[in-house]
């Protein structure tokens, strides 16, 4: 499969996918890294690996680029903007997203990154985790592909940033597993 990874920030999930690809964890190839932010550090990660980058200015142009590159799968890996219905329709069943909670809990519009971890800690949850799901028009409500949980050790986890680090390890692990799983379908 030819993959486009969509990012908005530092690209740690992207880096984990690049590393998994180099290790032969999955056969798919990352052909394109797209971002809505020109200064996203993840774009540098892509350039360091000679992966083409693209700044999303309009959905129509982006869809044309995806078709030009013959992209099979779109992986939203820290892309913090809700995507449009045209893209979802064109790539129905072929867009996945990583989310830093056990969906459906702590999902939906406005729930991303540290906001999720703040809410989890504020509610004194005992368990949290991450989920990879198919993208639909309803934010964070598409069918789950894989999720993994951890118990929150409040002796170690003192801040949302501490929790984010623990959940990020899960994200890195399950995102590559989801791609490997989708290759078999």
TrEMBL record:
<keyword id="KW-0808">Transferase</keyword>
<feature type="site" description="Raises pKa of active site His">
    <location>
        <position position="140"/>
    </location>
</feature>
<dbReference type="Pfam" id="PF00551">
    <property type="entry name" value="Formyl_trans_N"/>
</dbReference>
<feature type="domain" description="Formyl transferase N-terminal">
    <location>
        <begin position="1"/>
        <end position="179"/>
    </location>
</feature>
<keyword id="KW-0658">Purine biosynthesis</keyword>
<comment type="similarity">
    <text>Belongs to the GART family.</text>
</comment>
<comment type="function">
    <text>Catalyzes the transfer of a formyl group from 10-formyltetrahydrofolate to 5-phospho-ribosyl-glycinamide (GAR), producing 5-phospho-ribosyl-N-formylglycinamide (FGAR) and tetrahydrofolate.</text>
</comment>
<dbReference type="InterPro" id="IPR036477">
    <property type="entry name" value="Formyl_transf_N_sf"/>
</dbReference>
<feature type="binding site">
    <location>
        <position position="97"/>
    </location>
    <ligand>
        <name>(6R)-10-formyltetrahydrofolate</name>
    </ligand>
</feature>
<dbReference type="GO" id="GO:0004644">
    <property type="term" value="F:phosphoribosylglycinamide formyltransferase activity"/>
</dbReference>
<feature type="binding site">
    <location>
        <begin position="11"/>
        <end position="13"/>
    </location>
    <ligand>
        <name>N(1)-(5-phospho-beta-D-ribosyl)glycinamide</name>
    </ligand>
</feature>
<protein>
    <recommendedName>
        <fullName>Phosphoribosylglycinamide formyltransferase</fullName>
        <ecNumber>2.1.2.2</ecNumber>
    </recommendedName>
</protein>
<dbReference type="InterPro" id="IPR004607">
    <property type="entry name" value="GART"/>
</dbReference>
<comment type="pathway">
    <text>Purine metabolism; IMP biosynthesis via de novo pathway; N(2)-formyl-N(1)-(5-phospho-D-ribosyl)glycinamide from N(1)-(5-phospho-D-ribosyl)glycinamide (10-formyl THF route): step 1/1.</text>
</comment>
<dbReference type="InterPro" id="IPR002376">
    <property type="entry name" value="Formyl_transf_N"/>
</dbReference>
<feature type="active site" description="Proton donor">
    <location>
        <position position="99"/>
    </location>
</feature>
């Amino acid at each position: 499969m030819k993959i486009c990874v969509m990012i908005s920030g530092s690209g740690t999930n992207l880096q984990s996918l690049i590393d998994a690809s180099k290790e032969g964890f999955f056969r798919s190839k990352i052909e394109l890294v797209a971002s809505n932010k020109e200064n996203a550090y993840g774009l540098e990660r892509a350039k360091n690996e000679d992966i083409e980058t693209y700044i999303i200015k309009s959905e129509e142009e982006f869809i044309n680029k995806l078709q030009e590159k013959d992209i099979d799968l779109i992986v939203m890996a820290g892309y913090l903007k809700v995507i449009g219905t045209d893209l979802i329709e064109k790539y129905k069943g072929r867009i996945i997203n990583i989310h830093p909670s056990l969906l459906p809990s702590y999902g939906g519009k406005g729930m991303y990154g540290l906001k999720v971890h703040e809410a989890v800690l504020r509610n004194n949850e005992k368990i949290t985790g991450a989920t990879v799901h198919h993208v639909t028009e309803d934010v964070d409500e598409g069918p789950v592909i894989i999720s993994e949980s951890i118990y929150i050790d409040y002796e170690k986890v003192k801040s949302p940033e501490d929790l984010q680090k623990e959940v990020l390890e899960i994200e890195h692990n399950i995102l590559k597993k989801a791609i490997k799983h989708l290759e078999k379908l």
